[in-house]
Amino acid sequence: MTWGMLEKVFLRGTITTLTGLRVGGSEQGLDAAALENLVVRHALLDEPYIPGSSLRGRMRCLLERLQGIAGPPAGDGIGFGPADDPVHPLVQLFGMASKDGAGMPSRVMVRDALLTAESRKRLGRLRGVLPMTETKAEAMIDRVTAAATARTVERLPAGAELRFELVLDVRALPERQVAVVSEVHVAEATGAAAEPTAQVPGQALPAAWLLEVQRASRSEENGWGRDEDLRWLLTGLDLIQDDAIGGHGSRGYGRVKIRLDGVTHRTRDDYLQGRPEHALEGLAEELSARVKDINQRGERELQEILASLPAIEASR
Under a CB-based contact definition with an 8 Å cutoff, are residues 209 and 198 in contact? Predict the structure, then answer.
């Protein structure tokens, strides 16, 4: 099945840690003294980063909680996996693993978030057990004997800045490849959809694919489908600011401030004619307001942390 690309939309910005952040990595081959909980590191740069899979997974998890949806047990001790209702817009956005030949490709790519040049320089001055990170001692207390078991956790310190990028694919099945043989009927009261099919050469499409075709055609006409996807992505970034990235969020780890540069895109014609990406014009007023709101939230805490860094560095 061939999807026709309408445009790619880019959300870029900076993630700044407001508290120590830990995304776990492998401990194999590292002489880390008493450290049992190491952060993930870039294999070539030997510096901490936030994998795109961690950022994407956290966004999807928080959005599915917001909607109260979940999938079946995923194995390996996971009681509930990603939602797998193909008609739900979140599943259509993040995709669905192939199951009985009915998989659905993701429309969003989340790239690894790497340290900025300034943060790389600043963290390079740290003199910790491992480069560019801090260590935090913790203790687990036996509730009966009061005995303490010590452990040391490696974290990316507060004030670290990382650049991130989300890429949204806006696409459609060309009309000449689709012959709709029955319509999608959605009951307003229940939101339940019928199971119509469409015929692509040698293949039948279930209801979810028809919804994809319909929403893509609306995207081409007035940006409706694209703006809906952007609304979900902005909501996901907003949720992350009120939650955490990485492990131990309930103990204060992983609080971040997100600052967006804006929304840009390249259309199909831009690629064919070699034009660079440019600001997305005609963005819904509501979405522009969401970008501003995300940028403003947590700004005071961020400025307090950044203002304290020169004094901390001078004391070393």
Answer: yes
The pLDDT-based confidence of 291 (bands split at 50, 70, 90) is very high
Q: Which domain holds residue 150?
A: 4-315
- Residue 177 Cα distances to 154, 211, 220, 239, angstroms: 53, 15, 16, 39
Closest CA to 207 of 185, 224, 225: 185
Spatial contact of 308 and 158, defined as CB atoms under 8 Å apart:
no
Q: Which of 38-42, 242-246, 311-315 has the lowest mean pLDDT?
A: 311-315
Residue 190 pLDDT greater than 80, yes or no: no
Decide if pLDDT at 188 tops 50: no
How many structural domains comprise the chain?
A: 1
How is residue 139 annotated by DSSP?
E
Q: Which two tokens stand for residue 285?
A: 């007023």
Tokens describing residue 255: 């609080």
